[in-house]
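Subject: Protein entry, chain in single-letter code together with its fold tokens

Area: Proteins and the way their chains fold up in space.

Attached in line: The record itself begins immediately under this heading.
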Amino acid sequence: MTSPAGRDLDLRKLRYFVAVAEELNFGRAARRLHIAQPVLSRQIRVFEGELGVQLFVRGATGTQLTGAGAQLLQDAKVLLDEAKALQQRLFHAAGPSRTVAVGVLPGLRATAAAVRFESAGQGRQAVVRQVGWAEQAEVVRSGDVDVVYAREVEDSTGLGIAPLLSEPYCAVLPADDPLAGRSSVTMADLADRLLLQDPTVLADLRRTAAPQQRWAPPPTAVHSVEDKLEHVAAREGFVVLPRSTTDFYRRPDIRVVPIEGLPPNQVTLIWKATVDNPVRDEFISAALACRDETV
């Protein structure tokens, strides 16, 4: 590879590298980053080209770090920590902020609340980003976002919670599944099909599923919605998603069928209860006032 002299280090690609280096598996790293695996692989190849070194050896035995990769992993965490600390110093140096960071899960919308919040006073800004189901509580606890439009948080320790609304669940099936043309199904109807979700995540499904329900083992269960739909389209099994999520993701090779007898999915706002943040609280008030425009 050619010398990268004069080229700046891309912190986003550095974060991608750290995820792959820690997982030593591109699939797991992609799920952790909530991006598609081909996109991650392409970004790592570009990053290697920019640095002028090979970072990984990909072979039949898996993914391994090269010597340069091992050195970068050691230094990368320091660089990323310093970058985050710099952002925090700049944030505090700028004085009081009227900005709130908002996370939303796929299918949910914060647009109306953001407009209401920002129109209440000059200099207000709601910065909205999409988060995954598996990370919804962690991004609040870590301080990456101030409040999240969340779904059914199993461990609510240290979190403030405000209910917004509830909505029904749907089964997502391959387009040619015999049940795909029905107006509704029950969990008993689906018991002979593999449920691709991690059984440790959805308490309502565990309680409601038929005893003979087949579950994907946790190590092979899929997590991002995009991955779930890919596996369903490949006829590997089915998934259960809230109706608004199925409305958000549409594709011709799957079908969505309402499920009868399953308790509705609860949509809530969650935030870090131990942090005093008046600006966040003002956004929460706006979100509660706009609850009917969340889905």
